[in-house]
Specification:
Number of strands: 29
Number of domains: 3
Number of helices: 5
Strand content: 35-45%
Helix content: 10-25%
Shape: elongated
Largest sheet: 7 strands, mixed
Structural class: mainly beta
Radius of gyration: 29 Å
Oligomer: single chain
Length: 391
């Protein structure tokens, strides 16, 4: 797929005096967004020479750009600057583009000695990075469509089940409806965003998987599909998915035994035990207790494991899976090296027990079964892939 750049209607140029430029002034180019607000204005104001008046230009395809010279790409003490290329704008100023931008330009157009880059160009942005974009390339046409979509929107009440829509990133989605969305109530972990265990989401189909959104701010316009998918079939497929219905039961299932890996860091074993009725603890340990003498294609020997680390505690409440990652502790068979983090006043840490070949699975109201690993529901295919490699 072509790249998508934002092409603004209007740019603003600030300047610094520079003796090493042809025009004696170097430019910093920013742009007005669809709301008429300047992007990156704060850094732009801090960089430019306030004594030199800035200029506004319409961002129309323009010809006459000339390559000047390479700058940067050096290190001085702690200071390092990436290599850039200076380009002369026919409106009588110089600015800088990245080396990848230059290489892209040279794949799309010719560069004549003394005459510069052939063809017309516009200023575009990929995120916060300025890109000089050739008018004649495929990315230019695609970016024009992308830019128009940024100012477009579809209201939630206008969505029709079975109809197709374009997102602001030009992804075509088929709308299914606003459905219940079940997910793990994950507690613990300082960097985790708190998620709502049960919510309503706008559910779409992208041709391969479901896309569930909290709002439709990313939906830009209607789209046409020659053969719309079967709405009833997709709705049923969503209901059978990991987020489509509540969990009715947690249960343990045997894990197939696997051969040892030669790299110890990959050779970790995840297993689960039932601490008390309805409460399960996920643990991890290294096979053979760091003893690498048993390397090669031989079965794992759990008898030599002398410690494990608890990772999650699971329990089910009203169809919502609660995964407590504060339940973290290292337990040794000898009992002499236990070290618990004791988060949140957790004083009921488990005692050591011998590992077993057991994993935890969830049976949903739909009848589908999913394996649980680190609070996530895995499909049978994903679960089998994990067992063939490593948890």
């Amino acid at each position: 797929m072509s790249q998508q750049f934002y092409i603004p209607d209007k740019i603003k140029v600030g300047f610094q005096k520079r003796d090493d430029t042809f025009t004696k002034k170097l430019a910093y180019v920013i742009y007005y967004d669809m709301k008429g607000e300047l992007r990156k204005e704060k850094s732009w104001q801090g960089w430019r020479d306030q004594k030199i008046a800035p200029q506004d230009f319409e961002n129309l395809p323009t010809e006459g750009f000339v390559l000047n010279k390479k700058v940067g790409g050096y290190k001085s003490s702690w200071n390092y600057r990436d290599a850039h290329v200076r380009v002369y704008d026919p409106r009588d100023f110089e600015f800088e583009i990245s080396v990848p931008n230059l290489l892209f330009i040279l794949t799309q157009c010719d560069c004549s000695r003394g005459k510069g880059l052939e063809g017309k160009f516009v200023y575009a942005w990929e995120g916060t990075e300025l890109v000089l974009l050739p008018e004649r390339c495929e990315d230019f046409q695609n970016s024009k469509k992308y830019t128009v979509l940024q100012a477009s929107k579809v209201k939630a009440k206008e969505l029709q089940p079975g109809a197709s829509y374009l997102t602001k990133k030009q992804l075509c989605l088929t709308y299914l409806g606003k459905f219940d969305y079940y997910q793990t109530d994950e507690r613990g972990g300082y960097s985790r965003k708190k998620e709502v265990p049960l919510s309503k989401k706008f559910c779409f189909w992208d041709g391969k998987t479901f896309v569930c959104l909290d709002n439709v701010s990313s939906i830009a316009a209607t789209a046409e599909l020659q053969a719309p998918p079967d709405l009833a079939e997709l709705t049923q497929l969503y209901y059978k998915g990991p987020h489509g219905s509540p969990i009715k039961e947690l249960f343990l299932k045997d894990i197939p035994k696997r051969e040892r890996r030669r790299e110890y860091w990959r050779d970790m074993f995840t297993w689960v035990y039932e601490e008390k009725p309805g409460v399960y603890v996920e643990c991890r340990c290294g096979y053979d207790s760091y003893n690498n003498s048993n390397e090669g294609k031989t079965p794992h020997n759990l008898d030599k494991v002398d410690h494990f680390t608890t990772r999650y505690k699971y329990e089910l409440k009203d169809g919502i899976l609660i995964a407590d990652s504060y339940y973290t502790d290292s337990k040794y068979k000898s009992g002499k090296h236990d070290r618990g983090y004791n988060h949140g006043g957790n004083h009921d840490r488990p005692a050591y027990r011998d590992p077993t070949y057991k994993a935890i699975w969830a049976r949903l109201e739909s009848g589908e079964e999913y394996k649980l690993v680190e609070g996530s529901l895995l499909t049978p295919k994903e679960a089998q892939s994990g067992e063939e490699s490593d948890d």
